[in-house]
Amino acid sequence: MKILGIEHVGIATSDLEKGEVFWNLVLGINKTHTEEVENQGVVTDIYDTGNGKIELLLSKYPGSPIAKFIKSRGNGIHHICLSVENIDDAILELKKRKIVTIGNTYSIGAEGLRVIFIHPSSTGGVLLELAERKDVD
Ligand code: CO
Fold it and tell me: How far is the CA of 46 from the centre of ligand 1 (A)?
């Protein structure tokens, strides 16, 4: 597969306003996107550094993956997302190498990205998201 770079770092938070104070007012990074991602049970605020993004993730309901994560580990880095050239090729290769993915096919994430998550058991302890952007910058 071809990895194009780091797309974003996903951070679980229980307070998007506090996040805005730090990431926007203190660091001066523009918030470029806000979206509810139904299939992940989150509201996400995206801050774009121009060279990789910060994705703040707020749980929409108790029992969502982010709510469970915060309950066991607290707020903090939840996943890292790498950009791939072609998500279908990437998934085929992961399957061939018996890498444990969450779900068998891509789903549509924030900003319309085609995404799949790789289980931490296959990556050395980090939840890793792969994402293909349809429209090339
Ligand atoms: Co993400």
Answer: 10
